[in-house]
Amino acid sequence: MIPTSSKERSKLIDAHVGARVRMRRKFMALNQTELAQALGLTFQQVQKYERGSNRISASKLYEISQFLKVPVQYFFEGYDDTAGSHDFEKSHSEQAVHGFLSTAEGIEIAEAFPRIPNLKHRRKVMELVRTLSEDLSHPSGPSEQLVGINTKFG
Q: Which of 3, 56, 93, 102 could make a disulfide contact with 9, Cβ separation 3.0–4.6 Å?
């Protein structure tokens, strides 16, 4: 989607920067209150920044980058308002990965999964995740889908 006005582009940038602040904060295992206290803000203001409903000033973005230990440009990584002009849009997979890594659970899983040393165990975890995700799209229930899955690792 190409923003058609400066106001639309600004809203998209604000939302992108806010999402990156949220992702980095969660990656560092901080809650909104901890970030707010470090910046002299209320947690509600941090919420508004992360949702993109309030614009982050340049000086505040610099403070955030210092506290979260990333360069300011980190918050703009992945933003490209010209993507549509090249007939390129994020694939469903790219959107899913970005959404997943924007959650606390996603970050935790992304950190833990590579530490599973046994390839067989990793495959079993993937099998479990696929089965659980299919449960959401097939209302028949998990009991029929779990038949035949060996739950013992090894």
A: 3
